[in-house]
């Protein structure tokens, strides 16, 4: 229960809210990657903007989580990401992705800082920065994506991170774009 003052009363259970922090890709790279996602993952995959997930989970204290994400962003320097070639999580998970080569350590530092605080949660697997191309589609399509995109590469600067939550319809939506502000490394 919540009182008029907004304070939780004894016995109340806080409701979890979905939250994600991602690196979005700049134009025109996002259009290219969205087309690859459509080609190999279908229209549903293309509807989700290409991104590199930093953290995904839920929180029972949205305001505290947002303050934490803002603080992490403010202390992280701008960096470059280089994506090259493909990889897969098969047979453990039916995913084909593009490898984050340049900037993988910076993504890891961001991830570690984000989960050190109110976003702390257990991971089933270690953090591995990547950009998903195909997920839960036929093996033949994942094989094709992995082969055809194996020679592709692109680089871009990362000067912000996106904070996502679910909207009233349950769809992921950008809540806030947070500029990185730490000293350049």
From TrEMBL:
Keywords: Ligase. It comes from the Bacteria. InterPro entries: 2H_phosphoesterase_YjcG-like, Cyclic_Pdiesterase. Coiled coil: none annotated. Its EC number is 6.5.1.-. GO terms for molecular function: ligase activity. It holds the Pfam family 2_5_RNA_ligase2. Gene3D superfamilies: Cyclic phosphodiesterase. This is 2',5' RNA ligase family.
């Amino acid at each position: 229960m919540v009182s008029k003052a907004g304070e939780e009363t004894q016995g109340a259970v806080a409701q979890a809210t979905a939250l994600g922090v991602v690196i979005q890709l700049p134009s025109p790279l996002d259009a290219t990657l969205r087309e690859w996602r459509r080609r190999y993952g279908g229209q549903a995959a293309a509807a989700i903007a290409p991104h590199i997930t930093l953290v995904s989970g839920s929180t029972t204290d949205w305001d505290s989580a947002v303050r934490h994400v803002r603080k992490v962003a403010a202390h992280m320097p701008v960096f470059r990401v280089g994506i090259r070639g493909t990889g897969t999580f098969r047979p453990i998970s039916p995913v084909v992705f593009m490898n984050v080569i340049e900037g993988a350590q910076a993504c890891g530092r961001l991830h570690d800082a984000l989960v050190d605080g109110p976003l702390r949660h257990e991971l089933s697997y270690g953090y591995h920065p990547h950009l998903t191309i195909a997920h839960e589609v036929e093996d033949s399509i994942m094989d094709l994506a992995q082969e055809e995109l194996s020679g592709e590469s692109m680089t871009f600067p990362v000067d912000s991170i996106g904070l996502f939550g679910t909207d009233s319809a349950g769809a992921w939506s950008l809540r806030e774009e947070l500029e990185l502000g730490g000293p350049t490394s």
